[in-house]
């Protein structure tokens, strides 16, 4: 969101999203709570009698589903959309015109480097080429 024409865009910190470590810790805590309630429902089946058995039985079946749903629900952040950078286009300079007497394949490239080769597998007695 540039403020002035030609200015660099600025980005808000709030559009960064949720910290993944905090999100994972929250989901693990919610999963643990749901599964603890399920264990309590299973244990309560031993001392609850009559038609009241239906409530812990439903909890025994529903809490694992709820725990998995909560454990897999990743927070996506606020309502703002994440600001993305615009792709840049590289501008190639215009090629220079070569003189008419030189063809493109006739160009000679000379690299000025000392011809000393340093390789660890060569012996010290060998002379450089």
TrEMBL record:
Signal peptide per UniProt: none
Chain segments annotated as transmembrane: 30-48, 54-75
Composition skew (Basic and acidic residues), residue ranges: 114-129
InterPro entries: DUF3099
Keyword entries, A-Z: Membrane, Transmembrane, Transmembrane helix
Pfam family, any one: DUF3099
Keyword presence, Membrane: yes
Region (Disordered): 89-129
Domain of life the protein comes from: Bacteria
Stated name of the protein: DUF3099 domain-containing protein
């Amino acid at each position: 969101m540039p403020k002035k024409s030609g200015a660099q865009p600025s980005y808000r910190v709030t559009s960064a999203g949720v910290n993944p470590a905090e999100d994972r810790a929250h989901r693990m805590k919610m999963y643990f709570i749901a599964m603890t309630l399920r264990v309590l429902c299973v244990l309560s089946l031993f001392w609850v009698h009559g038609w009241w058995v239906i409530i812990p039985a439903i909890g025994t079946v529903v809490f694992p589903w709820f725990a998995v749903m909560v454990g897999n629900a990743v927070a996506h952040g606020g309502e703002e959309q994440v600001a993305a950078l615009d792709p840049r286009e590289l501008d190639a300079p215009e090629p220079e015109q070569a003189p008419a007497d030189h063809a493109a394949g006739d160009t000679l490239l000379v690299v000025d480097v000392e011809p000393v080769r340093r390789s660890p597998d060569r012996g010290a007695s060998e002379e450089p080429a």
